[in-house]
Specification:
The structure is a homodimer. Chain A is α/β, with parallel strands linked by helices. Chain A has one domain: Dihydrofolate Reductase, subunit A (3-Layer(aba) Sandwich), CATH 3.40.430.10. Chain A has helices at residues 37-40, 48-54, 62-69, 107-116, 127-135, and strands at residues 5-6, 9-10, 13-21, 25-27, 57-61, 80-83, 100-103, 121-125, 141-147, 149-150, 155-156, 165-174, 180-186. Chain A binds chain B through residues 22-24, 134, 144, 146, 148-153, 156-158, 160-169, 171-172, 174, 178-180, 182, 184, and chain B through 22-24, 134, 144, 146, 148-153, 156-158, 160-169, 171-172, 174, 178-180, 182, 184.
Chain lengths: 189, 189
């Protein structure tokens, strides 16, 4: 298990804030998330602003990065690390080179490095990245919002070769739209 | 889409009442559900008695049947149909031949037949059976209880080739144990 302290400092915590379908997909097979639009546009407060204000860095996979890149404007102000073995820093658009970097480090090494840089709280985003951080014991909290739609197929939030892991349920809230948001914490390891 | 009326009678409704892990598994790969024991023993009221009193027949897959058969006593008083292509009525233990039958009919034909027999409300149980009824548009209500445990792998509640289907969220309730129970209804088709 990954130690919780890195060079004497508490290792940066891993936080997940993600929406998925009732059947556990975070996007269609083609990466589409337009089925989430009605929720984004609902005016309901899912706590994203509060969440994003609570973290000081973001780690995401390549697909999540490419999705963010397709938005009209880059949606993050925080430093971002894109985990990828194939992508290089050269692949970043010039306007992002100050705030985005690419890393092929494994989760434990990446968290150690970010902890040494003084980061405390990381937003871990993207199915595969979440799964690999989960396997490494580096996810401390998950806020999962389930929307009342079965996608039938897609990119799963949880894979089929994850760790067996007890979580602690902190709270669940449901919204008039039918979105159900649950917060879980890793149990003490 | 399967018609909602059969020979002038309202077709029997399909109801799901199931527990799954946070990552959507209803059993381990080997079919184990011992990780649910703490919830069964918690004294918390998940509404199973009320649910089972609301249905008048049960349709389950072979694995669910075999699991039930492994219990100290057969747990159902209602008529049960086991859907299987390989199993025969001869395979049933003699003491179950009055209350259990085996069918290889497809979901629509099976529901038509049960409707003609006067059944109104069916408990649909088992991952594959739920998925095939879902694909056939024969699930009208789902009560899903998620326990705060990631299994990592196992028998999925929802497969990866299901239909895309909007559901209506009716209510969600969470329990001190961390189990979160949500009730969904099929939207009008």
């Amino acid at each position: 298990m990954t130690p919780n302290r890195v060079w004497g400092a508490e290792r940066a915590r891993g936080h997940v804030f993600i929406a998925c379908s009732l059947d556990g997909y975070i996007a269609t097979q083609g990466g589409e998330i337009d089925w989430l639009n009605t929720y984004a546009a609902s005016g309901e407060e899912y706590g994203y602003e509060e969440f994003i204000a609570s973290v000081d860095g973001i780690v995401m996979g390549r697909r999540t990065y490419e999705k963010a890149l397709s938005f009209p404007a880059w949606p993050y102000e925080l430093p971002v690390v894109v985990t990828s073995r194939s992508m290089k820093s050269n692949d970043l658009p010039i306007e992002l080179t100050d705030s985005v970097e690419v890393s092929d480090a494994d989760p434990a090494d990446l968290v150690s490095a970010l902890t040494e840089r003084g980061l405390h709280s990381l937003y871990i985003d993207g199915g595969q990245v979440i799964q690999s951080f989960m396997r490494a014991g580096l996810i401390d909290e998950m806020i999962v919002s389930r929307v009342p739609l079965l996608l039938g197929a897609g990119i799963p939030l949880f894979g089929s070769d994850g760790p067996r892991l007890e979580m602690e349920h902190v709270a669940t809230k449901s919204f008039p739209s039918g979105l159900v948001q649950s917060r879980y914490r890793a149990t003490t390891r």
